[in-house]
Amino acid sequence: MRDEDLAPYEKLDPQIPNPDFPHLDVAKVKRMTREYYASVASVDRNLGRLLGLLDKLKLAENTVVIFTSDHGYNLGHNGVWYKENAQWQLTKLPSQRWPHIGPKQRPNLYDQSLRVPTAVRWPAVIKPGTVVSDMVSNLD
Question: What is the bridge-based pairing of β-strands 85-88 and 118-121?
Fold first, then answer.
């Protein structure tokens, strides 16, 4: 990530999903959200560079580009940040503990952890804007 990616978000006051979650460290989640947005901007910028090069080399039409991940991401949802063993983002930790992980981690099966981003570009086969609403599998 470059400074140019963070610059548009440095002074942003982002909306967060659960600002009223008990003991949520709102200031920290907002800061991390700005940093997350900058990371996404960096990925977007670099993916654009790759797609632009494929266009320039006249390879885009028959090159399949798949952008995906192996997990979703919690951005303060339900008081946590990260993926399956998300980190609490609270000013006061809950009294309930899970025996198999540390007090700062929370296992979860929230939609934000399970839903995986996926985009496919294959100009010769897939029309831009095509949406597939069927369930797909990405085994890793």
Answer: unpaired
Q: 61 is written with which tokens?
A: 């039409």
User: The whole model's pTM is what?
Assistant: 0.80
**If residue 75 lies in a helix (H) or strand (E), which one and from where to where?**
strand 74-75
Percentage of the chain beyond pLDDT 70 is 88
Q: How far apart are CA 36 and CA 54, in angstroms?
A: 27
Cα(130)–Cα(133) distance, integer angstroms: 10
For the chain, the C-alpha Rg in angstroms (whole number) is 19
Q: Using CA atoms, how far apart are residues 30 and 85, in angstroms rounded to an integer? A: 20
| Whole-number Å distance between alpha carbons of 13 and 27 | 10
